[in-house]
Amino acid sequence: MTIAHDIELSRLRDRIAASHAVVCGMVHEAVPRDEAGQPLAHAVEPDGYARPALCPAGRRDTQLACSHTASRLPLRRAIETLHARGADAAGELLAEWMRLDTALGALDHRRYAAETRLADAVRSGSDPNSEERRSIAALVREHRDLARGLDALRDRILAAIDQALLS
Q1: Which of 31, 42, 56, 112 is the most buried (most CB within 10 A)?
Q2: φ, ψ dihedrals at 47, nearest 5°
Q3: Mean pLDDT, residues 14-34
Q4: pTM score above 0.85
Q5: For residue 56, what pLDDT is reported?
């Protein structure tokens, strides 16, 4: 145990406590439509589709469930500091962090792929397959579940930090 670890944990604790996993459904992966319901083409890549803007950086800084942020890195740094301090829970916390972080990144790509398939169907004039709509709805639910898992992990990390600082 070092004073440097305690200072680092205290600093990280404040940052982690300010973070939450907001269930946004990854709306930035949706394909916007025009007034006629047609998917909007990408401004540079005509075979691609337009994308909504990401949430503002200030919001993403504390949004644990966003795949386009570094807000989960303080969680990992806290786990690494807990490990260096000898905390028993560090290994389990790291495994859960890695699982959730990897799943969130993969989900982001799967959501855009599903949105693209739906937009392709609309653009081609075929009736959008309700299977694609169900797939997107399932991905939104998966995001909600990952957000819950991230908030639970956040709470476990905060508890581990508190325990470490009191010992």
Answers
A1: 31
A2: -85, -10
A3: 93
A4: yes
A5: 82
